[in-house]
Write a structure and sequence with these properties.
It is built from 6 helices and no strands. It is mostly helical.
Amino acid sequence: MGEQVTDGWSDVFGDFVARFAGRFGRVEPRRRMVSYLRGLLSETERKNGWTLAEAAGDDGPQGMQRLLNHYLWDADAVHDDVRDAVVEHLRDPERGILILDETGFLKKGVRSAGVARQYSGTV
């Protein structure tokens, strides 16, 4: 999976994650963070704990869940680091601005218990 996702840009990806890897005090959370990001960037259709874990070669989602729920790391600081990296890469005063829209997609199916129709700006 990792080769498929990172072909052609593994050095760039490595440099990107290295920018904020120091926010994770131990090796295991850093490795999990890299696997988690690779999974998010993969062509896996559904991105959840199980599918990200499977893409990383894990037997179950526990490792990914530990990253999000147990390991100590400063999510706000990582957010700021990622934002700074994106701004640094895209900043060009001659060209204008970048607007990101958290556009969603319609749910597929009707089997999600207790979930009402969700807002999506594309509908």
